[in-house]
Structures are given as C-alpha cells and as structure tokens.
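Narrative of accomplishments. A recurring question from our advisory board has been how the design workflow behaves on a single, concrete structure rather than in aggregate. To address it, we present the structure tokens for one chain from the evaluation set, followed by the sequence designed for it. No filtering or post-editing was applied between the two.
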C-alpha cells in the first residue's frame, strides 16, 4: 500500500516527517483546500509531492521561475518520480513531448508558470485529464501586500473555478498575517485550513555588525568558510561588479549576478554556482528565488535590505540541509539613507508602505535584544526564550551598566535645541563639534550643545542614542529617522533622573555558538573530513556526468552521515538521511566502495546509526494503541483509557497497519459493523477492485449506500484478512 510514510522512506529516503508535514498531507488527502506557510528549508515541497504520488490523477504545481521548475523536476527524476515542466525554455519538440507525457498519464506532476497555466492550450490539455491537486508555490505573489506581487497570480482563481473538483494548496515561505488573509480570500478558500510552521530557523546563526570597512570585513569573514558555498547580497549592480572583482583578486572562486549582465552570462554564472563549479555568488536581490541549493553555508548582506520580508527570504537560502550556517548583515546609516532616497521617488501609498518596511528593518538592525524576537514577531509569531544562544546579541558578553545620565542629558538637550528635525548622525556631529556643510547650513555651530560631547567617540554616541530610543526617552520617526524628545524624556531632563546604560556596545560572538552546534547529533559534528572530501568529489563526478547539480545526487547532510557512520552494506547505507530505493540503486555501489576502502585503509569500524523516530509521540499514539490492541486489549478498553471515540481508535489502528505493522484478527472488529453479511461482502469486493488506500472511491462505487464509519471498520477487517 502506498502510504505517506512508505513514500517518505522509499522515495525520498527520510525516516520522519518534519513538523506539520504529515498534518498538511492528511488535510490535502481529505480534499480540503490548504494554506501552508512554512519557512525555507521547512519541507514545503514534500507536502504536495507526497499527495501527488498517492492521488490517482494529475498534480499541477504553479511556480513563478523557470530555474525553480527545472530544479524541482531534476530532483524528482533523480528519485525515480516522473515529473515534467512546461515553459518557454523548451523547444517545440520538448514541449510537445512533455505534453504527451502528461496526457498519457506517465507524469504525475506538471510544473507550470501562472501565465502558462492560463493559456487555452494548457486548459485544453487539463480538461481532458483528472486534475486532483493544484499547488500554488510562492503564493505571496498573489497578494498586493506581499513583497513580490505578480498580477498574473491574481487570475489563478479562474483556474480554480474551471476545475472545482481539484483540491487547492497555496504555499509560501514568507507571509505576514495580512498577506495570509489576502491569499485565502483571493483563491476563494471558504474554510480556514491554515498551517503555520515556526519561522525560527534554529540552524542559522544571525549576526548584525556595524559596517566600517566592508571589504575587509567580508574577506575576514570568508576565511572561516574555505571551499564553502555562499551568497553575498549587494544593493546595486555596480557594487556587485566591484566586490566580485575584488574577491577574485583575493583568489576566491566567485561570480557576479545581476539584471545588467547579458542573459547568457547571468545564466552561466548561476549554473556554475548551483553545480559547485563556483563557491561564491555576489548578487543583487534578483538572485535566489529559483535556487534550491541546500548547502549554502553563509549569506552576507553587504548592504541593508529594504524590508524584513526580503531579509528573511534571503537569509533563508542558507542551511536548507539543516546544517549550521551563518548570516551576516553589515549595517550603516548611510545604507538606510540610500534606500530613503529611492523611496522618495515613489508615489503614495507605495512610498508610505516602503518607509514602514525600512523603519522595521533599521529598528531590527539597531536592536540589542535577541534577533529572533523582532524577526519572528514581524510574521506574527512570539519567541518566548530570553536568550536564543544563536545570534550575535544573545551570544554577546554581558556589558556592565554604568551611569550615563550626563551623556543622556547632553544628547536630549541637543535634539531639543536643534529643533527636533534631524537624525542621530547629525546630532552626534553637533556634539562632536564637526565642521561640515550641514552644520554650517543650519548654523548649528552656534548651539550651546555644539562640541560638548568630545569625550566620547561617534560610535559610542550612536550606541547611546539607540538606548535612549529603546528606553522611550526619544522618539524616532519612521521615514527619515528624525529624533524628538518624548514626554518621558522631558520629565527626565526636568527631574534630572539618573539613567543607566552602556557607553560601549557589548562584544558580540561572531561565530556559530555552542548551542547551534548542539542542535545536531554530536557525532555528526565530528565527521571525517577526508572521507567527506572524497565523497563530495564522487558526487561532483556523477552530477557532471548526468548534467545535474551535485545536490540532486545527495545533499551534504547525506555525505556527512556517510563520513560519520562509515556504512558497510546496503542496510546501513539505506539508513542514511536522503537515501531512498532509487538513489541506492543508482549511486549506492559507488559510494559504498569509497567508504569501505577508506575504512579498511584507516582501520575504521562502522558506527551504528539509530533510526530517527517522530517526535510527536515518542511512541506516537497510534503505535501505543496498535501494540496494546495486539496485546489483547479490547476496543472499549482503549476508548476508555484515552477518552476517545471508537472512530478515533479505528483511525489509530488503520494508521498502525499502513505504517507496516501487523494487526491481530479479532471478532470484536467485525462485531462493530451493523451491516448484513451480504452487504459486508459487497464492501470487501469493492476493496478488492479499488484497493483499501482511499475510502471515497469505494463510497462512490457503492452509490453512497454505506457510510464512512462502516467503511473504516470493514477496511480494518479487510486488511487483517489480507495480511
């Protein structure tokens, strides 16, 4: 029987589902429209790929980018799954070949762009087939409030109307509550079947540091990531070209990527990065949406992103394989000013919205609390831990509090005397007695606060200003970051209240913390680097031979486990994460040979890897119920023990069996049925003909004469007899 669990292991090579995956799959299989908000790396694709392999008809996946479709189809084919895409990158012959594959039923999954799906040609194709599932990826593109709105996505509701029997899924990695509501309304979802996974990526170390000498800071950072893949985001095309050229002079394997390059060069650079021929890509935000490269070990923001949504999506390209990865943002006020200049050119209401996004981004960058709290809060999620241990602020050495009353009074007075019309940088210039054009223009050299703050440095004053904003003594206007003294600040000046804080910023730990490393099995952190390198070379050789990216063969995580446990036979190798049946048949012998030779030469013994179990019941409830039933416990006793109905116990027993466990044959199961023996036999005959996987076809076959409760009982009886 094809079950979600059996497909997960046999096809995809995983022992357990990630959080919410099973619940989403169950919801889809119950033919309920489903909205999935799951962070990058959370496993969104599996939530429609698994149902696609369980359903009888076709699954259509709407995807916005050619690169994304190509990548997913390559990975599915490597797993032995027949999938195709239809887009402008295909020749007319290839296009027709893929159409024929869908029409014949050979391909279970079809990937298309939204504009392709809306064409008469594709509508005609789909009208001749049974469309079971419509999965809309990157669904935030539907919403005008999303960060990447695309008008053609709005028309997808027309497809829903044309194929009303198909269940619909909308999936996205980034969506605020407002965007989620808009997606559901736009697609006509009548029930709230929303699955919101945590946006917390525990394998990402998040760091924000003041931008001082950005090239030197970048080069120093890269020294920790020798031969590792990473992305560096820059604000402008010019900056991309300059930084890529500089890093190339430092002998780094690097390529640029932006919309100003010729199409051919841009595609070659992207392909080189995907295939591990190049380690680093320096890019504008145009890069990444269609990239599913799981072994990106770092993401650097050389310049400030325009919004938290963009920032979250971009750092989400790191560590998709679950291994530790580092996200660094170099922050300066100058970057925020550059973005404000471009926002000023926009019309309302886009201008106000852009200012709000920038304000949230700058407050995040300047914050001294845990990075995860404001990041997750932006997406409507509460992060309750005081110290995550996996960001720069939480890893900072505790700074000593000192009396900063006099500096605070100087700063607040300067804001007041300059008319509350300027940002922090200009106030600091006044306090330091700077002689620049802006000071002269406004005659601020005549203020009584001019030059009274020379005892502190510019960075110290800026740190104090941020603390005064956080304490509510200063207000910072969103658009231009103009400071004004609050009522609380005025009271502090008037009453000469003491203010405690820090003169210097706390020293931050700019490396992967012990807590982050502890998120992985301890033994997998000590994998054999030499063996890993050999396995990676073999992976690259096989990938080049097949014309696919290396991660299509195996992810880094699979190779890490091989280089940790030294599997010596098929059973042990099949226990590695990501090792399904098809992949073992295609590549298993090559990798086993390398591992066995290496282990023999270095006198290494195989280590036993304990198969993972799902966390949702360490014993999942259905396992406990099934084992208790096999031990002789009655249905009534199990209902009483767990305080549930007979229907719930039957569901547990069915799941226990479909997971591959035997179930004792017992008369009390059949005794629950109220049907006559003749009626029961008709149900069993229907199961013989249609299979017991899904009850709806059997229900329809029997003209709805037998209700679902009866079908559940008789399916269990049928399965017990067939075992």
């Amino acid at each position: 029987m094809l079950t979600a669990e059996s497909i997960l292991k046999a096809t995809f090579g995983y022992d357990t589902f990630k959080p919410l995956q099973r619940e989403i799959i169950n919801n889809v299989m119950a033919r309920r429209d489903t909205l999935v908000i799951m962070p990058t790396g959370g496993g969104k694709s599996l939530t429609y790929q698994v149902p696609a392999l369980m359903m009888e008809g076709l699954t259509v996946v709407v995807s916005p980018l050619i690169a994304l479709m190509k990548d997913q189809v390559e990975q599915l084919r490597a797993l032995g799954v027949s999938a195709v895409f239809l887009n402008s990158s295909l020749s007319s012959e290839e296009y027709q070949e893929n159409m024929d594959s869908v029409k014949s039923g050979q391909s279970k999954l079809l990937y298309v762009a939204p504009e392709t799906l809306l064409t008469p040609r594709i509508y005609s194709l789909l009208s001749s087939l049974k469309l079971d599932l419509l999965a809309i990826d990157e669904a935030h593109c539907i919403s005008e409030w999303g960060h990447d709105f695309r008008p053609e996505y709005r028309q997808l509701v027309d497809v829903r109307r044309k194929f009303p029997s198909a269940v619909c899924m909308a999936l996205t990695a980034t969506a605020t509550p407002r965007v989620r509501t808009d997606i559901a309304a736009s697609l006509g979802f009548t029930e709230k079947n929303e699955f919101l996974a945590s946006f917390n990526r525990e394998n990402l170390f998040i760091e924000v540091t003041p931008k001082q000498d950005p090239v030197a800071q970048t080069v120093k950072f890269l020294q920790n990531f020798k031969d590792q893949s990473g992305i560096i985001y820059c604000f402008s095309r010019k900056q991309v070209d300059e930084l890529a050229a500089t890093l190339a002079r430092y002998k780094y394997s690097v390529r640029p990527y932006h919309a100003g390059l010729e199409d051919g060069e841009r595609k070659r650079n992207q392909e080189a990065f995907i295939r591990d021929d190049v380690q680093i890509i320096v890019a504008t935000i145009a890069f990444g949406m269609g990239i599913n490269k799981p072994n990106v070990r770092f993401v650097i923001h050389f310049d400030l992103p325009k919004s938290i949504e963009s920032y979250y999506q971009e750092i989400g390209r790191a560590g998709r394989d679950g291994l530790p990865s580092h996200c660094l943002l170099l922050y300066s006020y100058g970057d925020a000013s550059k973005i404000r200049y471009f926002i000023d050119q926009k019309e309302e209401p886009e201008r106000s919205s852009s200012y709000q996004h920038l304000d949230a981004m700058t407050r995040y960058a300047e914050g001294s609390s845990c990075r995860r709290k404001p990041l997750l809060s932006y997406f409507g999620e509460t992060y309750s831990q005081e110290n995550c241990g996996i960001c720069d602020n939480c890893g900072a050495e505790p700074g000593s509090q000192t009396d900063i009353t006099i500096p605070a009074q100087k700063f607040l007075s300067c804001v007041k005397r300059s008319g509350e019309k300027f940002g922090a940088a200009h106030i600091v210039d006044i306090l330091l007695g700077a002689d620049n054009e802006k000071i002269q223009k406004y005659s601020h050299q005549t203020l009584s606060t001019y030059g009274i703050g020379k005892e502190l440095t510019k960075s110290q004053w800026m740190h104090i200003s941020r603390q005064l904003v956080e304490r509510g003594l200063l207000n910072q206007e969103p658009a231009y970051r103009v400071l004004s003294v609050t009522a609380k600040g005025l009271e502090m000046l008037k009453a000469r209240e003491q203010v405690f804080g820090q003169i210097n910023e706390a020293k931050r730990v700019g490396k992967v913390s012990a807590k982050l490393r502890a998120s992985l099995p301890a033994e997998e952190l000590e994998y054999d680097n030499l063996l890993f390198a050999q396995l990676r070379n073999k992976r690259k050789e096989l990938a080049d031979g097949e014309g696919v990216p290396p991660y299509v063969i195996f992810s880094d995580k699979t190779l890490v486990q091989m280089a940790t446990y030294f599997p010596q036979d098929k059973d042990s190798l099949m226990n590695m994460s990501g090792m399904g049946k098809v992949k073992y048949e295609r590549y298993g012998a090559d990798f086993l040979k390398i591992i066995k030779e290496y282990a023999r030469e270095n006198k290494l013994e195989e280590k036993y890897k304990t198969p993972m179990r799902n966390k949702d019941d360490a014993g999942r409830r259905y396992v406990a119920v099934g084992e208790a039933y096999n031990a002789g416990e009655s249905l009534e006793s199990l209902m009483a023990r767990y305080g549930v109905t007979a229907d719930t116990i039957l569901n547990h027993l069915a799941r226990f069996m479909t997971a591959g466990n035997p179930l004792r044959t017992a008369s009390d199961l059949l005794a629950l049925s109220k049907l006559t023996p003749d009626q029961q036999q008709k149900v069993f005959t229907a199961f013989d003909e249609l299979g017991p996987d899904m009850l709806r076809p059997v229900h329809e076959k029997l003209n709805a004469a037998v209700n679902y409760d009866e079908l559940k009982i008789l399916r269990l009886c049928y399965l017990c007899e067939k075992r």
